[in-house]
Amino acid sequence: MAKQAGSTTRSVRGSRTGRPIMALLDLLGRRWSLRILWELREEPLTSRSLRTACDEASPTVLQARLTELREAGFVELGDGGGYGLTPLGRELCETFMPLHRFAERWKR
Amino acid sequence: MAKQAGSTTRSVRGSRTGRPIMALLDLLGRRWSLRILWELREEPLTSRSLRTACDEASPTVLQARLTELREAGFVELGDGGGYGLTPLGRELCETFMPLHRFAERWKR
DNA sequence: GCGTATTGCTACTATAAATGTAGCAAAGGA
DNA sequence: TCCTTTGCTACATTTATAGTAGCAATACGC
């Protein structure tokens, strides 16, 4: 498979400033974005197993997020199928990985 | 003012697992959550100036997010008015602060 | 006192996004 | 061939957000 991610540069919602951090916060602030990156942090997953990992989130949103994350260069669809992080995506993932420890202490 | 944040523990969407990281990713994955924390990173802001900083986002969502973030213990409403980060919130904010540098290199 | 401005916050309708279910075509294995 | 899994889409329903207006409370200057 390994289809190329579309090049439709959809304007990043709520980030009329053009500042990269805003675009990034906006992209990561969409539903399931952070979760997807998190679930892919260790190994590539098929769309189905990713869906399972994400509490059976609806495939509609997952596909939308996956497309956006691919266009952003964080996620790629491997030749043999299955979604994985790009080097850039892995880097991003490690950036907010400390959240894990924070969350554990937080508990709520 | 300094009203107490409501104690209605609204179940954190999509985190039926109970794992703290999921609850955190879910909370931060709602619209404007990350952005609010980001805008409050340096100094407290009034609800109005926060709204201005967030590209005039609708007060409906901002209030909803602020309430959730207060219930989570990340944001507080100061006695003299104005929203600011709690020590915990400041800690969280620093956790994903490296995103800034990442975003600058990312550019898209 | 009075008017005026700002605070945090809410009501309301219109629009956009997510959910939930079903199902497709293509590729692969038995 | 049949069966399974892949990535992905259609559709109607439900939920979330946008956008505008406005409230009560507080704090100013006069």
Protein model, in words:
The structure is a homodimer of 108-residue chains. Chain A has helices at 20-28, 33-39, 47-53, 59-71, 87-95, 99-106; strands at 75-77, 83-85. Chain A is mainly alpha-helical and 108 residues long. Chain A has a single domain (20-106), classed as Arc Repressor Mutant, subunit A (Orthogonal Bundle), CATH 1.10.10. In chain A, strands 1-2 form a two-stranded antiparallel ribbon. In chain A, a hairpin with a 5-residue loop joins strand 1 (75-77) and strand 2. The interface between A and B is large, with 39 and 39 residues. Chain A binds a DNA duplex (30 and 30 nucleotides) through helix 4.
Total number of domains of chain A? 1
Beta-strand percentage range of chain A: 5-15%
Strand order of the largest sheet of chain A: 1-2
- Taking the alpha carbons of the first and last residues of chain A, their distance comes to 43 Å
Proportion of helical residues of chain A: 40-55%
Top-tier CATH class of chain A? Mainly Alpha
Structural class of chain A: mainly alpha
List the uncertain runs of chain A: 1-16
Q: Which architecture name of chain A does CATH use? A: Orthogonal Bundle
The residue-averaged pLDDT of chain A reads 85
Biggest sheet statistics of chain A: 2 strands, antiparallel
- Please give the number of β-strands of chain A: 2
Supply Rg of chain A.
14 Å
Biggest contact: A-B, 39 and 39 residues
Q: Helical segment tally of chain A?
A: 6
Order of helices and strands of chain A: HHHHEEHH
Shape of chain A: globular
- CATH domain topology of chain A: Arc Repressor Mutant, subunit A
Oligomer: homodimer
What would CATH call the homologous superfamily of chain A?
Winged helix-like DNA-binding domain superfamily/Winged helix DNA-binding domain
